[in-house]
Amino acid sequence: MIAFDSSSSTVDSPVMAVFGPALAQLREESLEHFNSASVAIEPLSCMVRQGSRLLRVRIRTDSESFFAYVKLYNVDGCTPEYIGLMRQRGVRDFETTRRVHLLMQSVSGISTLRPIAFLPDHLAVVTEEVHGTTLGQLLTKKAGWYQEREPLDDLCTVMARIGVWLRTVQTLDVPSARFSLDGMKEYLDVRLVRLVRHGGLAAQERCGILRFVDKRCADVAEADLQEVVIHGDLSPSNVMIAGTNVTVLDFEMWRTGSVFHDVSRIYHQIELRKLKPWFKPSALDRLLEATIAGFDPTLSPERPLFELLTLQHVINKLTKLTTQPVGRLSGAYSWYVTQCLRRWLRTRGLN
User: Does the pLDDT at position 120 exceed 50?
Assistant: First the structure.
């Protein structure tokens, strides 16, 4: 059975009315989802996000007690056809998340969220809560100036394990497909045109970038074009660290893509921290080397496809800074980052 202790809950009745049907199904299927004939769920707090609602709960079974999240996707106003597609995608994504969780259990120091249930009728996902500190917080704490060697050594271990995580998830079987360089060029040019229109680049700079892309595409090895499973949105904010153990969040929206997409993205995001004065560039360089070593010791950032994907991340960042309004203080920093990114392009002969 499922029990709610309303006296200790901060969740109000309207929220419980929204989550009630999903929780009722969990009650009926407690043996399947919790391997327990009885289960008590205590709602603790609720958060509304763009596209979903999230309920934090405490779960007590016959053998364990832990915290979890129940996420309901918001499909208000959506067509039945779209909702049906969401259900199909949810079933597929949950199964893949379950496979990835089992896969990571065979490798020391890496993991994903523990998936508990997906309820198609309610578009509800239940996952165990992860404890730890985000990678972004650790980078700020340990990759600055005047740090002792030991904490950075630990962080190097963490970064290497992130590389291992990325390489491990790519071993999942997916239908064979080739990464499209033409598709990438079209994707880039859409953003380059937008940058030119908003004054972020000159027209001749766009032409130079496209020439560079053509040149590097010609150098890409055929073996690098096999598509693999990727996270797609990896960032320091969705990697949780406990000690030196790594848990990657937000994997439910996985897709297939370039073998270097995720590793080049996290590499780029750490590189950007060199623009902030409280980070020590030499410390960040060590972390970047550890990430690459964990992923593939033979990989170089100058590898053609890796460099093209880094270019893509730079252009995406530049587009965001150029087209989105910011406040006065953040505007000054955005201007500085914009100039640094344009300089990055020019050093590669893209002017």
Answer: yes
Three-state DSSP class for residue 153: helix
CB 91 within 8 A of CB 118: yes
The per-residue pLDDT of the chain, averaged, comes to 90
Nearest alpha carbon to residue 2 among 15, 16, 246, 194: 16
128 has which bridge partners? 68
Q: What whole-number distance in Å separates Cα of residue 29 and Cα of residue 37?
A: 9
8 A C-beta contact, residue 155 and residue 285 = no
CB within 8 A of 114, min separation 6: which ones? 101, 127, 128
List the beta bridge partners of residue 88.
none
What stretches of the chain show up as alpha helix (H) in DSSP? 13-28, 30-34, 80-104, 135-142, 149-169, 181-197, 203-217, 261-272, 281-295, 304-323, 328-347
The CA-based dihedral angle spanning residues 91, 97, 101, 106, taken in that order and rounded to the nearest 10 degrees:
100
Could you tell me the pTM of the whole model? Answer: 0.88
pLDDT at 179 over 50: yes
- Cα atoms in the 13 Å half-sphere on the side-chain side of 221: 8
- Residues 98-109: pLDDT tens digits? 999 999 999 999
Cβ–Cβ < 8 Å for 196, 206 = yes
Coil vs helix vs strand at 10 = coil
pLDDT digits (tens, 9 = 90+) for 206-244: 999 999 999 999 999 999 999 999 999 999 999 999 999
Residues 6+ apart with CB under 8 A from 22: 70, 72, 119, 122, 124
Cβ-contact 253, 232 below 8 angstroms: yes
10-35 burial: b if 16+ Cβ within 10 Å, else e: ebeeebbebbeebbebbeeebeebbe
| Token output for 284 | 């960040």
Q: How far apart are CA 88 and CA 202, in angstroms?
A: 44
Hey, what domains does the chain have and what are their CATH numbers? Answer: 13-128 (3.30.200.20), 132-179+226-298 (1.10.510.10), 181-224+302-351 (no CATH)
List pLDDT tens digits, range 130-167: 999 999 999 999 988 766 556 789 999 999 999 999 99
